[in-house]
Specification:
By secondary structure, this protein is α+β, with helices and mostly antiparallel strands. It has helices at 39-47, 101-116, 183-186, 195-216, 222-225; strands spanning 30-36, 58-64, 83-93, 126-129, 133-136, 139-151, 154-163, 235-242, 245-256, 262-266, 272-274, 279-280. It starts with 29 loop residues before the first strand and ends in a 5-residue tail after the last strand. Bound molecules: biotin (BTN).
């Protein structure tokens, strides 16, 4: 029996997701684990097997013991508090504008959260921090980790995302407390969507925005990225390749190129493109 979305609003049980899905591509094959090392690692291992997972396969876990973020960082993943998910995209031949995929995932996640949180008043701005974070009130709410595997001219991608849902500030590791946030910090328990409701809304929007992106590349999703991109028009700190390796410089983020690269203008010198990097909104220590 298909349950109505409203029945699920507070549902947290990801194993029961099938009854609420509104997608045709994403999540139709779903593997849920009480505990995994990393949902991305599980998806990559499955991709390495002889048949591999079907396109759109979703892997979720209540806890991760080796959750990974970008640049080899750890992603803290305590049991039952937050959302840890990976979706497999069997893209075939390299899609149009492929390099901006994580921006399209950001739009899908943001639109899904907006859908799930509709009607909740007083929330701070939900923004996209180029290239792969979602911020709520200028603190990190979610992160995206896209990992590709090539076979000849074809590519498979694991789209992993972690969203802080039920964790309270004192449940974050001390070093994250200054920078992280969660829905629990802003939405009271009786109004906060459960993880299953959130994931249902997110997969719905992610499917929609990926479809647009694979047809038209970044220009096809720009209208839903740019207005919410927190770095545009602001001073950012960025690591730029230099003769000594890298140099960290301050620059104004002045725009996004048609392939999704960030264009920045340093205090002195010519504007340049940043294709994939960590950028900071305040000078890092
Ligand atoms: C980042 O901000 O650096 C990206 C974080 C991505 C975390 C998610 S949680 C689900 C999936 N499995 C992982 O090991 N990582 C991603």
């Amino acid at each position: 029996m298909t349950r109505r979305y409203t029945d699920l609003v507070h549902a947290d049980d990801l194993a029961a997701l099938a009854g609420s899905l509104t997608t045709t591509r994403l999540g139709r094959t779903h593997e849920h684990h009480a505990e995994l090392g990393s949902t991305n690692d599980r998806a990559l291992a499955w991709l390495a097997s002889p048949t591999g997972p079907p396109d759109g396969t979703l892997i979720t876990a209540d806890a991760q013991t080796a959750g990974r973020g970008r640049l080899g960082r750890a992603w803290s993943s305590p049991a039952g508090r937050d959302l840890y998910a990976s979706v497999v995209l069997r893209c075939g031949r390299v899609p149009n504008g492929f390099g901006a995929l994580s921006l399209a995932v950001g739009v899908g996640l943001r639109e899904g959260l907006v859908r799930a949180l509709a009607g909740i008043e007083g929330l701070p701005a939900l923004e996209l921090k180029w290239p792969n974070d979602l911020l709520l009130g200028e603190r990190k709410l979610a992160g995206i980790l896209c990992e590709s595997r090539w076979r000849g001219g074809e590519v498979d991608v694991v789209v992993g995302f972690g969203i802080n849902v039920h964790r309270r500030l004192d449940e974050f590791e001390p070093e994250l407390r200054e920078r992280a946030t969660s829905l629990a910090i802003h939405v009271p328990d009786d109004r906060r969507p459960g993880r299953a409701a959130l994931l249902t809304a997110i997969l719905h929007e992610l499917e929609r925005w990926l479809e647009r992106f694979f047809v038209g590349g970044f220009p096809a999703i720009r209208s839903h990225y740019e207005p919410h991109c927190v770095v545009l028009g602001r001073e950012v700190w960025v690591d730029r390749p230099s003769a000594k390796g890298t140099e960290r410089i301050a620059a104004i983020a002045i725009g996004l190129d048609p392939d999704g690269a960030l264009r920045v203008r340093p205090r002195t010198g010519e504007p340049f493109r940043v294709e994939s990097a960590d950028i900071w909104l305040t000078e890092p220590e």
